[in-house]
Amino acid sequence: MLTKRVIPCLDVRNGRVTKGVKFKNNVDLGDPVEMAVGYSEGGADELVFYDITASAEGRPIDIGMVEAVARAVRIPFAVGGGISSLADMERVILAGAEKISVNSLAVRNPQIIAEGARAFGRQCVVLGMDPVRSGKTPSGYEITTRGYRDFTGMDAVEWARRAADLGTGEIVVNSVDADGTREGFELEITRLVAEAVDVPVVASGGAGRPEHFVTVFREARADAAIVAGMIHSGEFTIASIKDAMRDAGVPVRMSW
Question: Is 254 inside a domain boundary?
Answer without folding.
Answer: no
